[in-house]
Specification:
This protein is elongated. Helix 6 runs parallel beside helix 7. The chain contains eight helices and five strands. Strand 1, helix 7 and strand 2 form a beta-alpha-beta unit. The protein has 317 residues and is an alpha+beta fold.
Length: 317
Amino acid sequence: MHARYIPLFWRLFIPNATVLAAAALVLHLEPANGRIPAIGGGVATMLVVNLVLMRRAVTPLERLTDLMRRVDPLRPGERIPAPRAESEVSVLSETFNEMLDRLEAERRESLHRTLSEREAERRRVADELHDQIGQNLTALALQLDRLHKRSPEDLRDDVVDARDGVLATVEDLRGVVRTLRPEGLDALGLPAALTSLTTRLMQRTGIQIIRELQRDLPALDDDQKLVLYRVAQESVTNAIRHADASCIAVVLRAEGEQVELTVRDDGVGIDERPGATTEGGIRGMRERALSVGGRIVVRRRSDGPGTEVRLVVSSVS
């Protein structure tokens, strides 16, 4: 419960009334009789007192207005420091901070539900592609292989082309399944899944990916592991597709009870103009980080050309 405070109205009115009463008393005891300096001094004193009081009164409001303009739902944690003296401004600041707490908590829970549903749907689609379509295509390839042995000489090349096309489609399908469902994440853990991801991308693109993946990490829940994997996947994919990078570094390590993922590239660097980093894949990474209470920073590298993505999540232990 807040202590009793003097309302802003009275804190402005009482000093002004005091100055005016003092000026009236001075003029009553010693009339100005044309001495303008006495009146001017009183007016100047009143203006200075007003200036000081109004500045002290509106400065917290200006900070609050600036914060309201600056608040970004994807960059939580910004709060306005409440004035030391209890007042309407301090109550307004505390109320605004409490409102931000509620909004951020509700947004985090909403994003968590949305992303969990999205991942569940991805997993369901991946299972159907693998178990139904993938198996049907594999069976078709085997059937074409048997047909090749019995087909006339002039049709064998066509049958071989059809079989090879089916096998290529199966391979493409496996790539889609791996994208939808992180390979080995549940069974082998996060470092092994990141190793598999980066190895596959290196083989496909020829781009060098340097890995520093700590194995003995603090306890993480399934959602945190998935977010770390997806952010790494998106960061590396962005560096390959858009940054014209020749080398990418993926670092996963523990810092006390926190796990930190860092992805650096030597490409062209991110556009850091206001609003430029809130669209597309980067916005998705911010939403994923927010859904598990993580902190993510996407910025140009300070030690050279390229972009750095850093995500920190806290252990569940």
